[in-house]
Design a protein that fits this description.
By secondary structure, the chain is mostly helical. It has a domain at 1-45. Helices cover 71% and strands 0% of the residues. It is built from 2 helices and no strands. It has helices at 2-43, 63-74.
């Protein structure tokens, strides 16, 4: 019985160690890729679209919205 328990614990430790090492390796790879993308973004910046500087006008008066809601409620 003790031998079977020892084999189970060793298999669990090997499996958990494998998963932990893979996750650590993946985190390191993600940090390296993030640094590489940051450097490439400095070298090759994205083009800004021409319409990006246009500011959208928002209506602070909600009476038009309220009228549209009331009209939609009574429309059959």
């Amino acid at each position: 019985m003790n031998e079977l328990l020892f084999e189970g614990l060793s298999a669990m430790l090997i499996g958990m160690g494998t998963v932990l090492s893979f996750l650590c390796l993946m985190i390191c790879a993600m940090h390296i890729m993030s640094a590489a993308v940051k450097r490439l973004n400095i070298i090759f910046p994205e083009a800004v679209p021409q319409g990006a500087n246009i500011k959208k006008v928002s209506c602070s008066d909600d009476s038009e919205v309220a009228a549209a809601i009331v009209a939609a409620m009574f429309k059959k």
